[in-house]
Amino acid sequence: MIEVQGLSKRFGDTIVLNGIDLKIEDGERIVVIGPSGTGKSTLLRCLNFLDSPEAGRIHIGDLDLDVAKAGKADILALRRRTAFVFQNYALFANKTARENITEALIVVQKRSRAEAEKRADEILQETGLADKADAYPAALSGGQQQRVGIGRAMALDAELMLFDEPTSALDPEWVGEVLDLMRRVAERRQTMLIVTHEMQFAREIADRVIFMEGGRIVEQGKPQQLFDDPQDPRTREFLKRVG
């Protein structure tokens, strides 16, 4: 069980997250939708302190964290339980595909290099990139780079995987291969929190869909219910706009 209570964040005078409460069951796949600038990505970033929340609690596994009091050790413990997939890949340009995956295993999880490389090669095989192990990001397509990014997150065996609009930076021709990999990850009942504008994908993969606006969770429910019979007028208007 993952539980978030009263999570709040502001940038200057702008409230970006306004007391978010959220429970995620083990193995649950949750998709977050909503207008741009409404706090979706900030929610994910606050869940592993890429952005520092100002108030609230985060409970993951045996970790119970008051974010206002979090120190370096607390943040490291939180990051060991989460894995983040960025919309712009965020690969190390000077490292190969294999090295991009081994980096966190060695630095964060303190695995030996041999163990990390063995795990990286397993992941590259699973993601269909075994022949690209020694390739640098500049030699990979956008879709391949994002699959490396997802593979890096998979390798961590995290309790929660966070996907921040993982297809938004891709050319249309590469979107399908990334979504296919995410489907395979989801089939393992990996706990996932996904921000996306891919509505059909959300219908297919989600156990629950959350609609956010103005830094709040406005409505949530099963995909069929939320997409076909939204209860809040803000949800209805958003879905009408995105088709």
Provide an overview of this structure.
This protein is 38% helix and 25% strand. By secondary structure, the chain is of the alpha/beta class. The protein has a 6-stranded mixed sheet with strand order 6-7-8-3-9-10, with helices on both faces. It has a 4-stranded antiparallel sheet with strand order 2-1-4-5, with helices on one face. A hairpin with a 2-residue loop joins strand 4 (55-60) and strand 5 (63-66). The radius of gyration is 18 Å and the shape is globular. It starts with a strand and ends with a helix. The mean pLDDT is 96.
Write the layout of secondary structure elements.
Elements: E1 2-11, E2 14-24, E3 29-33, H1 40-46, E4 55-60, E5 63-66, H2 72-79, E6 82-85, H3 97-107, H4 113-126, H5 142-155, E7 160-164, H6 172-187, E8 192-195, H7 199-205, E9 208-213, E10 216-221, H8 223-228, H9 233-242
Parallel strand pairs: 3-8, 3-9, 6-7, 7-8
Antiparallel strand pairs: 1-2, 1-4, 4-5, 9-10
Helix pairs in contact: 3-4, 3-5, 4-5, 5-6
- Spans with pLDDT under 50 lasting ≥5 residues? none
Shape: globular
Overall pLDDT: 96
Return Rg in Å.
18 Å
For the sheet with most strands, the description reads: 6 strands, mixed
Strand content: 25-35%
* Measured distance between first and last alpha carbons: 33 Å
Arrangement of strands in the largest sheet: 6-7-8-3-9-10
Q: Give me the strand/helix succession.
A: EEEHEEHEHHHEHEHEEHH
- Structural class, from secondary structure content? alpha/beta
- Treating each run of at least 4 consecutive H or I residues as one helix, how many helices? 9
Helix content: 25-40%
Per DSSP E runs of 2 or more residues, the count of β-strands stands at 10
